């Protein structure tokens, strides 16, 4: 069993723990929290036996007792937490976006080279789903590619707090957050996983009073087509996402959740692709990561592919921010 440690006590952490336990590959042993009380409160909220799970309040105590850490803290904290984990010989599963900028990513990549037995995974759960793989396989068969329109616009549970004058972490540049890094990362990941790295990018954001982006439209430019990405945290959208061939089209109900994927052949005929998604969308990525940890040699090519995709997404997100003049404090740190 892989000894699992946790940083972060939000809903997404609880979802990952549930998924990891359902693979029967992990054993939750340790939860890191800034206070003992908040860690114990989080454990009490989980629908699993936590009698043998410890709560710790220092990273040194966390990393000495686990094989892999799942990091779901605010984005700006990912780099330091992952760095210490790698130095401690602990594998890292870090929520997307993994790091604030390419400089941080390159430092982590260099550190991994010095610790060749350690693996780092970005938890882009949707690209591990069977329905996403069905999209990739179908796009590869299209006679002519004409790009895509990808949409992920969801009202943030923290936007009301922002409107009331507060500064929630997920809507501030201080924590390397905003619409692009919180929601836009899903369709950006999808675009790069299907089409590869774009030749050029452009981001047109709607900025909040604190300089963070609340919503926006990103354009990814390829040789023979463009991809338009629409996302935001200040309103809801129920538009599907679409991948275009010549006459044929793939329609996706939600590019992050992938509940329904439909292929239209251009003659009015439709065909559902993939399967009914699992109740917990993080099960597939949890199993994929466990496979790598348990057998890194056999699965090295797949791991390398995921790592390179994560690196390309990191660069693309940074380039999009640069095009819009959005700077994070993490960008100017030594």
Automatic annotation (TrEMBL):
InterPro entries: Gfo/Idh/MocA-like_OxRdtase_N (IPR000683), NAD(P)-bd_dom_sf (IPR036291). It holds the Pfam family GFO_IDH_MocA. Keywords: Oxidoreductase. One of its GO terms (molecular function) is nucleotide binding. The keyword ATP-binding does not apply. Signal peptide: none annotated. Gene3D superfamilies: Dihydrodipicolinate Reductase, domain 2, NAD(P)-binding Rossmann-like Domain. Its EC number is 1.1.1.292. It comes from the Bacteria. Residues 2-116 form the Gfo/Idh/MocA-like oxidoreductase N-terminal domain. The keyword Oxidoreductase applies. This is 1,5-anhydro-D-fructose reductase.
């Amino acid at each position: 069993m892989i000894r699992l440690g946790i940083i972060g006590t939000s809903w997404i952490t609880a979802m990952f723990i549930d998924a990891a336990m359902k693979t029967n590959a992990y054993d939750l042993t340790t939860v890191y929290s800034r206070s003992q009380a908040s860690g114990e409160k989080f454990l009490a909220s989980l629908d699993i036996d936590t009698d043998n799970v410890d709560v710790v309040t220092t990273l040194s105590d966390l990393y000495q007792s686990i094989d892999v850490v799942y990091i779901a803290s605010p984005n700006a904290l990912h780099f330091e937490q992952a760095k210490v984990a790698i130095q401690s010989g602990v594998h890292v599963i870090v929520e997307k976006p993994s790091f604030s900028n390419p400089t941080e990513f390159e430092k982590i990549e260099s550190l991994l080279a010095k610790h060749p037995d350690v693996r780092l995974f970005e938890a882009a759960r949707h690209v591990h789903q069977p329905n996403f793989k069905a999209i990739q396989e179908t796009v590869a068969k299209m006679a002519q590619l004409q790009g895509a329109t990808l949409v992920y616009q969801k009202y943030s549970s923290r936007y009301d707090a922002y409107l009331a004058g507060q500064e929630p972490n997920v809507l501030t540049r201080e924590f390397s957050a905003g619409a692009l890094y919180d929601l836009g990362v899903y369709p950006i990941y999808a675009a790069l996983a299907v089409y590869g790295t774009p030749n050029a990018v452009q981001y047109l954001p709607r900025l909040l009073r604190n300089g963070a982006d609340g919503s926006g439209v990103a354009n990814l430019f390829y040789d023979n087509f463009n991809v338009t990405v629409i996302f935001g945290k200040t309103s809801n959208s129920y538009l599907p996402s679409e991948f275009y061939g010549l006459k044929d089209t793939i329609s996706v109900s939600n590019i992050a959740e992938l509940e329904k994927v439909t292929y239209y052949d251009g003659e009015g005929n439709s065909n559902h692709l993939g399967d009914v998604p699992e109740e917990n969308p993080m099960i597939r990525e949890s199993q994929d990561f466990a496979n790598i940890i348990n057998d890194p040699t056999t699965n090295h090519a797949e791991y390398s592919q995921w790592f390179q995709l994560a690196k390309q997404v990191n660069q693309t997100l940074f380039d999009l921010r640069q095009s819009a003049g959005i700077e994070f404090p993490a960008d100017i740190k030594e």
